[in-house]
Specification:
Blueprint (H helix, E strand, L loop, with lengths): L2 H8 L6 H7 L5 H11 L7 E5 L5 H8 L3 E5 L3 H10 L5 E2 L13 E7 L7 H11 E14 L4 H13 L10 H4 L1 H9 L4 E14 H9 L2 H4 L3 H18 L4 E14 L3
Parallel strand pairs: 1-2, 1-4, 2-3, 4-5
Antiparallel strand pairs: 5-7, 6-7
Length: 260
């Protein structure tokens, strides 16, 4: 994946913000318990920057735990959706590689499904700059549990039939949550990890809206996008004729704590 394709995919979210907000999976309560445990600090009362906040799915959950959270989001379309849905949450436009924040002002910096859009050699030092002593950087993402037969079959279909996914993908190293701990530890942070298995059940239409919000679908031509989604609708309804889809996930979390 070339740098220009990666930029195109990163820029694609504004146009699909409504689908993203309505259909993307949330995060289980246990994930936030683990953030507190590994970070050594309660979320309630903590000053938090949720970077790459998107439409605010994680931001709202952090606020619901009592965090004093500010959303940081580069996309105008995503930021507009976040503000429309959650007008009471402070929001600034910016990126993790150059945080629009003063030094030593945050207790926690979070990346929910967003760290792979940064350049770690810039975003990790930026997080360290903005964190207070003893502050924490928390990075997590939902990964589909591919041990489920239908999920594996869907991945095979997409890999075979979607042009934006064919060929080698050097961008894969950015999406490998297993590498994040090593990257963070390389800057002297104390690292801990956790995995939380969870599941949701959604209508097939919601699953398709979630798929529509993926960057590799959003960058397709309208003709290819609708063809892919129509084929997926048929395949999913053949597998789940009642129209409800069980979606198993593993939320993978890495927390790095700075020296106190």
């Amino acid at each position: 994946m070339t740098a220009s394709i990666w930029r195109d995919r990163a820029a694609s979210f504004g146009a699909v913000a409504a689908d993203y907000d309505a259909a993307r999976p949330s995060y289980p309560d246990a994930l936030f318990d683990e953030i507190e445990r590994l970070g050594g600090r309660l979320l309630s009362g903590s000053v938090v920057l949720d970077v790459g906040a998107g439409t605010g799915i994680a931001t709202r959950l952090l606020a619901g735990r009592g965090a004093r959270v500010t959303a940081v989001e580069p996309s105008a379309g995503m930021a507009a959706r976040l503000h429309a849905v959650s007008p009471g949450i402070p929001l600034v436009r910016g990126v993790g590689d150059a945080l629009p924040c003063r030094d030593a002002t945050a207790d926690l910096i979070t990346y929910a499904q967003a760290f792979h859009w940064t350049a770690p050699d810039r975003s990790i030092p930026e997080a360290i700059r903005v964190l207070r002593p003893g502050g924490a950087l928390a990075v997590w993402r939902n990964d589909r549990d591919r041990r489920t037969a239908w999920a594996e079959a869907q991945l095979d279909r997409l890999m075979a039939g979607v042009s934006s996914l064919t060929g080698p993908s050097p961008g894969a190293e950015r999406t490998d949550i297993g590498r994040v701990g090593g990257l963070i530890a390389g800057y002297g942070l104390r690292v801990g990890t956790a995995e939380i298995a969870w599941q949701r059940e959604v209508p097939v239409d919601t699953a398709l809206a979630d798929l529509r919000s993926k960057s590799f679908i959003a960058v397709l031509s309208e003709e290819e996008r609708e063809s892919v989604l129509a084929a997926e609708r048929a395949a999913l309804l053949a597998e789940f004729p009642a129209g409800m889809l069980p979606e198993p996930f593993v939320a993978r979390l890495t927390v790095g704590v700075t020296a106190g």
